[in-house]
Write a structure and sequence with these properties.
This protein is of the alpha+beta class. It contains 2 helices and 3 strands, in the order E-E-H-E-H. The protein is globular and about 30 Å long.
Amino acid sequence: MRRYFYLIDGDGNELPGSRRYLDHCRDWRDVLAVENGLRAVMGEDCELRDSALDESRVR
């Protein structure tokens, strides 16, 4: 599974167009840049999620 960050709204729905894949990230600095980019545009009631953490909760 490809790892990505995404935003959810206050109701827990993924915001369309918010998914950012991390395939191109070479190190933690690149991952942090993607995370910070999403945090910069997210609204007050939004939350940043990580697909890798979501996957581990299902198991």
